[in-house]
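Support request, please re-run this one:
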Amino acid sequence: MSSNSSATASETTVAAGIAVDSVKLEGLIIEQIRASRDGCTNDELAQRLPGVLRQSISPRMVALLEQGWVYDALYTRKGNAGCQMRVLFATPPDKFEYEAGNYRRRQIAVLQTTIRVAQMRLRALEFSDLA
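Re-run finished. Output below.
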């Protein structure tokens, strides 16, 4: 960012987020992944969606993963720059609720474990203050 610019990084990030219709873009991404038998990497999606900025695809992929619409194939392919990129597949419509439910249950379990660990650390601090 140049020294003449008055916009902060957070302002430009917010403006970019507003400019992208995330719901529409997520729909386009899912359509492209479903159309591919071999799944897609972010680079492949950028090639299939020529009017979409590459930087807009990655955040949408993270959101789709979190929501259970796509899943990680647990293998990679070389991207345009020669780096390994993960391959993502669209969750079949009949399995979506099950997959999304599993993801939510895992999230809840992780949060519960985090809370328990925090509570144990708090108790340990309280006991160390008494000693």
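The longest helix spans residues 96-130. The helical segments are 9-19, 22-35, 42-48, 54-67, 96-130.
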